[in-house]
Design goal:
Length: about 450
């Protein structure tokens, strides 16, 4: 399997090189040159547990790491999850909640980043190289990435996050990590500012090469690849091809579901659930992709107006026409908006936006009826599922443990939010962080220091 850039300037990249490259050198995102088709093998895959399915599917994308070695990395990646089959489920009448938060940082990002950490460790050790990882987070990516690579001698990790705009628990999950290779950087701005700083640094090919920069955000293909597994797994366990409802801001999680659909896994529809930062909902309704003001909400990991993985979707929507893609992205970069001219002709995607009251209402309703607690991001998905009519089983992706968002949950249910011993242990630990302005020179100085 080889990889190429969505913008056409990079081709023929091996998986290992794509892993270390992160963002393509032409500013695009890496995608596989072809998408494997599993439709003829569904019955053989249907009875597999999560890890066994990963061992069958991931080699379709990874052909330059020996299969025995890859299988060992997969086993090690999921050894720290507290669910016997990595992901859990809870049935709420006609909606199934797909629990993706059983990893070490209690967020869905662990499913991909624990594997990414193992892949980085193996490849860098094999090559005798070092890497400086630069990432941006609106909440959960940072702690999951840090947990995946903390203490590794050949990696330094720098995580940018918006100062005072992630939950206190999310921040402590990052800033209380004592390992010397971990650097938490609070940026005076929004997540979109953090993401723009990261992309600007990566776009400087000379600086990127000089400082051996790598990416853990979902701009890194391996992140998306790992997330395909749980959509394939859940689809094979459903009684009929399901509709997945995915709360999303950066489009990476739902894009993985889209790839699972393209691979032939039995998926009926994909419902994109956004909060008040509704750029994706507006796009699927009108065809216009237009940046708006960032709203800071109860679901901060989705407080994003520029969805970095959206470019990968456009690449496939434009049927690999890189000139059309580049023109669209140039329009957006120049004017803050770009348009297809009409709503996309797409049979698989539906999108909807959910506001604060609907989010709180979903948490309260589910708690009152089922005694089950949703975190606010999952609540966005649950509320979206209730507002969209579907004729298939419905699976909502539960992206975080509710204990990470105690203020929102307590406000909704009127009782103390459930805790978690992993988070309770952070209360008394010292924190370390560096605060900077949203200026690219400040980021470069940190990386060069």
């Amino acid at each position: 399997m080889r990889y190429q850039s969505t913008r056409g300037g990079v081709r023929g990249v091996s998986f290992v090189d794509s892993l270390l490259m992160g963002l393509a050198s032409d500013g695009g995102l890496l995608v596989p040159e072809s998408i494997p088709d599993v439709s003829s093998d569904l019955e053989g895959l249907r009875g597999l547990d999560f890890i066994s399915l990963a061992k069958r599917v991931l080699p379709l994308f990874v052909d330059d790491i020996p299969e025995d070695t890859l299988n060992n990395l997969i086993d090690r990646a999921y050894a720290r999850f507290d669910h016997p089959d990595v992901i859990g489920e809870r049935v709420l009448d006609d909606v199934l909640i797909m629990e993706l938060f059983h990893g070490p940082t209690l967020a869905f990002k662990d499913v991909a980043l624990q594997l990414l950490g193992q892949l980085f460790s193996h490849v860098l050790s094999d090559r005798g190289e070092r890497l400086k990882i630069l990432g941006a987070t609106s909440g959960d990516t940072g702690s999951a990435a840090i947990e995946a690579v903390r203490g590794q001698p050949n990696i330094e990790i720098y995580i940018l996050y918006p100062n005072n705009k992630v939950s206190p628990l999310q921040e402590r999950q990052m800033t209380t990590v004592p390992d010397e290779n971990v650097h938490c950087v609070a940026v005076e701005g929004s997540f979109d500012d953090c993401q723009a700083l990261m992309k600007t640094v990566f776009a400087d090919a000379e600086f990127k090469a000089a400082h051996s920069l790598g990416a853990v955000n979902s701009v890194n293909w391996a992140r998306v690849m790992a997330q395909i597994i749980y959509y394939g797994y859940a689809s094979l366990r459903a009684p009929a091809p399901p509709a997945f409802v995915v709360p999303t801001g950066n489009f990476g999680n739902v894009f993985a579901a889209y790839l699972a659909w393209r691979m032939g896994f039995p998926i009926n529809r994909l419902i994109v659930a956004t909060n008040e930062n509704d750029i994706l909902a507006r796009f699927f309704a009108t065809g216009e992709y237009a940046r708006g003001e960032v709203h800071f909400t109860l679901s901060p990991a989705m407080d994003i107006q520029v969805a970095s993985n959206f470019e990968r979707y456009l690449y496939y929507y434009f049927q690999g026409d890189t000139r059309r893609l580049c023109a669209f992205m140039d329009d957006f970069a120049t004017h803050g908006r770009a348009s297809l001219g009409s709503a996309p002709d797409d049979d698989v995607f539906t999108a909807t936006a959910v506001d604060r009251l609907q989010t709180l209402g979903a948490i309260k309703a589910v708690y009152n009826k089922y005694g089950y607690v949703l975190d606010p991001h999952t609540a966005v998905g649950y509320a979206a599922a209730a507002s969209v009519e579907v004729d298939s089983p419905v699976i909502v992706a539960a992206t975080a443990h509710p204990a990470k968002f105690t203020e929102a949950v307590t406000s909704a249910i009127g009782d103390a939010a459930p805790g978690h011993p992993t988070l309770d242990a952070l209360e008394s630990l010292p924190e370390r962080k560096t605060i900077i302005e949203a200026d690219v020179s400040a980021v470069r100085d940190l990386l060069a220091g």
